């Protein structure tokens, strides 16, 4: 035996469904799910599917890198990044030049020269390290660059009360920050 169910959504659009009474059935109609359970009771759930908005460009893309990882970025590091990369990164991240120099660990005297003539492979590696960590932090905060910047500049218990930005100047420190981000993404807080 079939039972006709007529329900009206909040938009006043009628939805009809034929549901067999012998089995538990699930009807999905646009934004409505009707469930008939064997005891004859009905349950209705109205939902709105999330619309996936186009994601903004990642930092490595905005900086003009070919990739965030892999052999392509290794090649770019070995050749040295152009001076414009630093400007693009600072603009995307909305940070000052002094913050950028502090976080990457590039001395002020060589930084000014490198902006004009390009960065050495060693400096390029520091910039790519910063790009990777900041990109992951922004991803952790679901695209909120301001929240990611605040987090990078606040002491974190898991990092022995150091700020993530303090640790990013060294490979070992950046590695610890990346491990922490991964733990936070998976809900492991200690």
Summary, kept brief:
With 190 residues, this protein is an alpha+beta fold. 47% of the residues lie in helices and 15% in strands.
Can you characterise this structure?
- By secondary structure, this protein is an alpha+beta fold.
- It folds into 2 domains: 2-46, no CATH class; 59-185, no CATH class.
- The chain is 47% helix and 15% strand.
- It contains 9 helices and 5 strands.
- The protein has helices at 59-62, 71-79, 83-93, 97-104, 108-117, 121-140, 145-152, 164-167, 171-185, and strands spanning 2-8, 14-20, 25-29, 32-36, 42-46.
- The strands form 2 sheets. A 3-stranded antiparallel beta sheet has the order 3-4-5, with no helix packed on it. It has a two-stranded antiparallel ribbon with strand order 1-2.
- β3 and β4 (32-36) form a beta hairpin.
- The radius of gyration is 26 Å and the shape is globular.
Task: List the main descriptive attributes of the protein structure presented here.
190 residues; alpha+beta; 3-stranded antiparallel beta sheet; two-stranded antiparallel ribbon; 9 helices; 47% helix; globular; disordered N terminus
Helicity, in percent? 40-55%
**Which word captures the global form?**
globular
Radius of gyration: 26 Å
Strand content: 15-25%
List the helices and strands and how they pair.
Elements: E1 2-8, E2 14-20, E3 25-29, E4 32-36, E5 42-46, H1 59-62, H2 71-79, H3 83-93, H4 97-104, H5 108-117, H6 121-140, H7 145-152, H8 164-167, H9 171-185
Antiparallel strand pairs: 1-2, 3-4, 4-5
Helix pairs in contact: 2-6, 3-5, 6-7, 6-9
């Amino acid at each position: 035996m079939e039972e006709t169910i007529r329900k009206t959504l909040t938009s006043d659009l009628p939805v009809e469904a034929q549901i067999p009474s012998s089995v538990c059935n699930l009807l999905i109609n646009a934004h409505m799910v009707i469930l008939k359970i064997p005891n004859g009771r009905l349950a209705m759930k109205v939902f709105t599917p999330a619309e996936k908005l186009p994601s903004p460009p990642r930092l490595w893309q905005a900086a003009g890198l070919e990739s965030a990882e892999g052999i392509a970025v290794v090649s770019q590091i070995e050749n040295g990044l152009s001076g414009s990369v630093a400007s693009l990164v600072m603009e995307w991240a909305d940070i000052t030049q002094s913050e950028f120099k502090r976080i990457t660990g590039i001395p002020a005297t060589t930084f000014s020269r490198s902006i004009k003539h390009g960065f050495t492979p060693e400096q390029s590696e520091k910039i790519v390290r910063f790009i990777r960590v900041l990109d992951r932090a922004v991803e952790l905060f679901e695209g909120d660059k301001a929240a990611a910047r605040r987090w990078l500049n606040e002491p974190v218990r898991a990092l022995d009360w150091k700020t993530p930005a303090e640790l990013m100047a060294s490979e070992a420190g950046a590695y610890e920050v990346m491990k922490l981000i991964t733990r936070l993404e998976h809900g492991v807080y200690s």
